[in-house]
Each structure stands twice: as structure tokens, then as C-alpha cells.
Amino acid sequence: MVEGQNQQSRNDKATEFQGGTVHLLDSTNAISDSDTTISSNASTTTADSDWTITHDNANGTTTLENSNEIDFGSPSGFTIDQIVIESPETSGNFIIDNSPSGDTDLSGDGSTSIPANDLSYTFGSE
Questions:
Q1: Among residues 16, 21, 109, 118, which one has the fewest Cβ atoms lying within 10 Å of its Cβ?
Q2: Cα dihedral angle (123, 91, 89, 60), rounded to 10 degrees?
Q3: What are 4-21's pLDDT values in tens digits?
Q4: d(Cα 21, Cα 95) in Å, to the nearest integer?
Q5: CA–CA separation, 20 vs 2, rounded Å?
Q6: What does the H/E/C string look like for 36-75?
Q7: Residue percentage of the chain with pLDDT more than 90
Q8: Nearest 5°: CA angle at 78, between 72 and 84?
């Protein structure tokens, strides 16, 4: 989380990632905060309307959450280590989820998607 932001700066940061490309990465392709390029195992683009932004001013937080399912088709052969959203505005600007939950083993085959309201990023104080 990014601490010390007011609602406008938290909103600006969350808005930057609406409509971004969502990437699934295995441990070999995992990135860090300082990386500017990505080698994705699977990815899909989203639209602004696929996301909602909510504010909790009492706690000083803003949350970006997927309001629609994010479908990756049928990737296989890896285990998801990170879920990353790449800014559609600024190449090389990412937000990273280092602890995805659910069925992250894609060593088999089948359809892979993130259900609506299952991916969220919170900006603000803890």
C-alpha cells in the first residue's frame, strides 16, 4: 500500500490502472517494483468499465477492484506466482499482487478467469 496520500492522489493512482493489461506470471517471470518490462505467461486487456474505484476516507484508503470477470482463455503449463496490472497510460508502470489465492496451478488445461470482485488493490494507509 502507498501511505500518506490524500483521496485525490489515491484516486489518480487507482484510475491510472483502469483498463490496464492483466498479466499472470510464474516464479520464473516474476517481477519486482523496480522492473520496467514484463514477460507474461498469460495476459488480457481490460476496459475502464471492468473496474470500480471506492473510497474509505475514514481509513484513508482507495480500492481498485475488478467489477467484471477477467478471462484469460486456456493458458496452461505454469503456476501463478503474481498477478500484475500494467498501466495503459505509462509503459512499464505496474501494480503487483504477490499472493494470488484460489486455483493457481495451471499445469493442466481449461479455462482460466478471475471472477468479478476477486482482484483488488488498496491504496492508502494500513
A1: 109
A2: 10
A3: 568 888 888 899 999 999
A4: 11
A5: 19
A6: CCCCCCEEEECCHHHEEEEEECCCCEEEEEECCCEECCCC
A7: 63
A8: 55
For residue 55, the one-letter residue type is H
Residues contacting 118, CB < 8 A, separation 6+: 66, 102
* Alpha carbon of residue 49 to chain centroid: 15
Report the alpha-carbon distance of residue 105 to residue 87 in Å, rounded. Answer: 26
- The model's pLDDT over 54-98, given as tens digits with 9 standing for 90+, comes to 999 888 899 999 999 999 999 988 999 999 999 999 988 999 998
pTM over 0.85: yes
Q: Residues 78, 79, 83, CA angle at the centre, nearest 5°?
A: 110
